[in-house]
Amino acid sequence: MKDFAGRIAVVTGGGTGMGRELVRQLVAEGCHVAMCDVASDTMAETIALCQADGLPQGLRVTAHIADVSDEAQMQRFRDEVAAQHQTEVVHLLFNNAGVGGGGSLFTNSRAQWERTFNICWGGVYFGVLTFLPMMQKADEAHIVNTSSVNGFWASIGPETSHTAYSAAKFAVKGFTEALMTDLRLNAPHIKCSVVMPGHIGTSIIMNSRRVHNGGEEGSISAAELKNLRARLARNGINADAMSDEQVAAAGAAIAQMFRDNAPTTAAQAAKIMLDGVKDERWRILVGHDAEELDRRVRADPENAYTREFHQKFNEDIGWRLG
Asked: Rounded to the nearest 5 degrees, what angle is found at the Cα of 183, between the Cα atoms of 274 and 132?
């Protein structure tokens, strides 16, 4: 699919980060877009940015509230897309929505673990399951599932547990690779790609906190405060001497640094993804750090989880996530 003009795209998680930039760039290419998210305010900001960019006349950009981990909500989203875009077909599906959290089986709750897994993996599964019939009716279509470098390397460092997110992203990667054969046998006009971003400048940490705390922006749970204290202590900070408010502020600063100091911006990531679709690449690594990490893990998988591996990668690439 070399040209997106006149096509209809579905983007999950369109309110912030890579999802927002996908919406903006698709619209700029003349593509109709239906996005979903769990927050109406962020999607309103995305639409406002599209309008400021110069929304082409007659182009439809719609926003829909949907939790991608809930099949019924995804089905309602599909029905709204069909009605508001007056269509029976969808050409592009970007299963992009995701959150972090639930990293440890010991220090996080089961609810947090399953919430992260169900969004990051279940959102992809339900996205494909829900919109596949509409894509079958298109002349050509493309499914883009967002995994992560954590879909082939289940770590952000030797001092930080990262089980729920990594498990989900491994599932997304394996599912998409298997889906290629399923599509070739049963719907050869539909292509699919798995996207594996490295460190991208998004607000995923802040958004994850909002999702895990019932949609309350800026709130932080007691369990997360405890985990933050432990993380600060590992970095030589006397967290015991800090109040809860100070620890929460430190967590907010970490989230802001993650967004602002990333080697790849969300806009750059979205462009890499869209270029990958146009080139019909099934495997899309996003960022030099993702490409280099992929090379190193493949070259030395037995030592990929050692402190030495992570330290060397940090020194060479500049990651400071663990």
From this structure: 75
